[in-house]
């Protein structure tokens, strides 16, 4: 698939078919994350694939509550991927400290983009979620308390009638400058 077509195809999916995702496709997604670049090749993440239905539902329910309900769709997804930040290599930590940059956060974003683009190419839908009860998910998935969860990604097959939405973006001259701000 042409890369421009792929990035136009990828969108946040908030409805899913009641259909499991094949293990072979999940393995391709894992490999996409595995190949993602990172500062000093630290690969400061641990990817947890949650596909056991009861556990997945508990994780999904930790993404919303009575007051904040916009992630309720997560219960429909047959899989939730959890990207946990782990310690970067010492050289990346030193560089990040000197430059006041959180390289692992950038790296998690790159890994998530690889995951979502690979999913789109495989005919799967995804939605990145940054709103969740971190302590609850840490408990459910046995994530050490000293680790931070970067984000969650729902994964599954969108319904047949799920249409591609028009992407609304700022004009390119507002987001890009040549040789000057």
UniProtKB/TrEMBL annotation:
Q: Name one GO molecular function term.
A: oxidoreductase activity
What InterPro entries does the annotation carry?
Nitroreductase, Nitroreductase-like
Q: Per the record, a Pfam family? A: Nitroreductase
Q: Nitroreductase domain spans which residues?
A: 7-157
Q: Fetch the SUPFAM superfamilies from UniProt.
A: FMN-dependent nitroreductase-like
Report keywords, A-Z.
Oxidoreductase
Homology family:
Belongs to the nitroreductase family.
Name under which the protein is recorded: Nitroreductase
